[in-house]
Amino acid sequence: MSELSGLSAVLIGAGFALLIGGASWSLFVGMRARREAGATFAANARLEAMLASAPALAMTVRTDGRVECPQRLADWFGLAGLPRYLDDLAASDAGLLPEDLAALSADVTAAQKSGRAFSRALRVRGSARSLMIRGARVPKAFQAPGGVILWVFDATDTEDEIARLGEAIGHATALYEDLSGVIQAAPMPMWYRGADLRLAMVNSQYIHAVEASSAEDVIARGLELVEGSGVGGPLGNAVLARDARSVQSQTMPATIRGERRMLRVYDAPLSTGGVAGFAIDIEDLEQARARLKRFDDAQRAMLDRLSAGVVQFGPDRSLVFCNQPFRRLFAMKTEWLADRPEFDRVLERMREAKRLPEVRDFPGWKAERRDWFLAAGGGQEEEWHLPGGAHLRVVAQPLPDGGLLLIFEDRTEQVQLASARDTLLRVRTATFENLYEALGVFAADGRLQLWNNKFRLVWGFEEEFLATHPRVDVLAEAASRQLANPARASLIADLVRAATVERQQRGGRVGFADGRHFEFAAVPLPDGNGLFTMLDISDSRRIERALRDRNEALEAADRIKTSFVATMSYELRTPLTSISGFAEMLNEGYAGKLTAAASGYVEAILQSVERLGMLVDEVLDLTQAEGKAPELERQSIDLGAVARAAADVVTPLASKRKLDFAIEIVPTTGAITGDAKRLQQVIEHLLRHAVAGTPAGGRVLLHTDGTDTAARIVVSDDGAGMSPQAVTRAFDRFAQPGITRDGERALGLGLPLAKQFVEAHGGTIELVSEPGQGTLITAILPRR
């Protein structure tokens, strides 16, 4: 029991000790919490004071849309009470605009989901207040997880200032862009140098001039427009402008895109310490000045070559220039003119040389001419009749600079020529009146200006009618009664119109009612008028009619002759066939064996029959083909083989005449499309012509060759040749004068037939010959 009591006492004592310790700890913690609470309240009071005086007010937006904000912020929004939800920030007549509230709600939602901060400027409805809102997710210490804290700034004054500054910046920017655009579009290089005189900005013309890729390239490489440095260089001019604080200009040469140009460079100092510059290309101006000087020199040189005298006086009325004709015309010495005499002295010297008109009051006359310098009506013109019969035309032209230009034209010869012209006109009139032809001159408007008596008599016009200078239409109507066909009177108007308007020469013929015939012609005259002529051709018309009747009779006789020749040719074939047949029978021995002499006679008969048959064929070919091309059997033929066959036929004849017969068939002769029989006849005729005209021991050549488009046949000989008259008629039928070589060529049908057959193949034939030089005949035949 006693042990239990002792243990209990210990436990109780321990319990009291723990209780006392716990109470002490609680008291200590309470005292510390009280101190901390006091500090927290003080800190909260300071924070509330800071928030109250802060330029921004806070608003918390929870996840369910509820908002927490002070009354001051509600006043900023123009709300009567505190908003409970974010949508309460927009009232019917206060708060935010619906579109601003929707944008703010979207920003808040995005911040809640992604934690992205945002910033937005808003306007309060019905107020000039501008608010700047910056939002972000609330820190974790806030008891609003997922909420967003909005800091609202009153930016009314700031926005106004920003707007004002923005307008000013926009205006300045627009001005800068306009100025930059003007600088970039300027037709001259422009640049800006900084305070260190290094290039800081250039325009497009500068870039183009130095052949750079960009402005940055120019600035990086420091490409100068003008070469050189020092006082005479571009930097020297810029230094002078900067130090003198005034615009400096200097003329400098530069090479722009490989071309040497002269530039006028201007440098202007700026308030920043830099220098702006630009360059004007004065190369064209310098060249224009040089050209003007050359033109002035050339003009004076040209004036020296004029026939008219020219003298120029300056504003001070002293002589500036005179040409050589002026010195000769007025006997002026170069030494005296070198002193630049005044206008009055020059007139006095002209009077001394007796090159002025004779006047009673010379001082007054001179004073009147002195007024030429001040003439307001422009140039003055006078005619001076000088002693000795000379005649001068004087033109006085005041100059813009106050000077005077005088031109003296010697018209003495012109006056004499005018007198001679009047004499010629009188002679022409007399000639005009006595011509056999009827003549009339019509003006460009169709009126009759001049006429001779023959013209009036032919048409039977009255002088009073012609004196009215009638138009050609009226005159043609009056003349129609004289014509066999009155409608032909319109020919007169057509011819005159062609001569005066169209400037063409035309003619025609017309018959009169009395049987006369006239030939009309209208000729344009140099002065724009038209000359109408009429020639009586009544006699020539009668002769023409007689000649026409005779020609028709001759043509009929020629047709009868051709028919007769053709008929006779056909009729000759029957006896020729009989003679040839009987001669061949005799030659074959049907009538018994012949002696050697008789055989020779029979051979001669056969050769003669053959030649006569060939002549008959030629005559038939000429008569049948007259007026039309002969019929051909066209096919592809070897022209070389045809030529060789023709040569084989003529070879015995050449051997008989002891001629050197050469044959040259070149491989280029080739094939052509044509009639083999006719072409062989052509070559035979040409060869026979050559053999017949070549004496014994002579040489005849047959040569053929060709190209891709044509073949050529050449036959030449070294015989006696032909006269020019014979050459011109070599291809005429039955007319080859000078060819009497043997009976075979007496009719001369070979060359005309050869020409006929060659032209039927679309070819050409040409004969060249001179007496004593032989003959050359060339025939060209197309391949197709």
UniProtKB/TrEMBL annotation:
<keyword id="KW-0902">Two-component regulatory system</keyword>
<feature type="transmembrane region" description="Helical">
    <location>
        <begin position="6"/>
        <end position="28"/>
    </location>
</feature>
<keyword id="KW-0597">Phosphoprotein</keyword>
<dbReference type="InterPro" id="IPR035965">
    <property type="entry name" value="PAS-like_dom_sf"/>
</dbReference>
<dbReference type="InterPro" id="IPR036097">
    <property type="entry name" value="HisK_dim/P_sf"/>
</dbReference>
<dbReference type="Pfam" id="PF00512">
    <property type="entry name" value="HisKA"/>
</dbReference>
<dbReference type="InterPro" id="IPR050736">
    <property type="entry name" value="Sensor_HK_Regulatory"/>
</dbReference>
<dbReference type="InterPro" id="IPR004358">
    <property type="entry name" value="Sig_transdc_His_kin-like_C"/>
</dbReference>
<dbReference type="Pfam" id="PF02518">
    <property type="entry name" value="HATPase_c"/>
</dbReference>
<dbReference type="Pfam" id="PF12860">
    <property type="entry name" value="PAS_7"/>
</dbReference>
<dbReference type="InterPro" id="IPR005467">
    <property type="entry name" value="His_kinase_dom"/>
</dbReference>
<keyword id="KW-0418">Kinase</keyword>
<protein>
    <recommendedName>
        <fullName>histidine kinase</fullName>
        <ecNumber>2.7.13.3</ecNumber>
    </recommendedName>
</protein>
<dbReference type="InterPro" id="IPR003661">
    <property type="entry name" value="HisK_dim/P_dom"/>
</dbReference>
<dbReference type="InterPro" id="IPR036890">
    <property type="entry name" value="HATPase_C_sf"/>
</dbReference>
<feature type="domain" description="Histidine kinase">
    <location>
        <begin position="567"/>
        <end position="784"/>
    </location>
</feature>
<dbReference type="InterPro" id="IPR003594">
    <property type="entry name" value="HATPase_dom"/>
</dbReference>
<keyword id="KW-0808">Transferase</keyword>
<keyword id="KW-0472">Membrane</keyword>
<keyword id="KW-1133">Transmembrane helix</keyword>
<keyword id="KW-0812">Transmembrane</keyword>
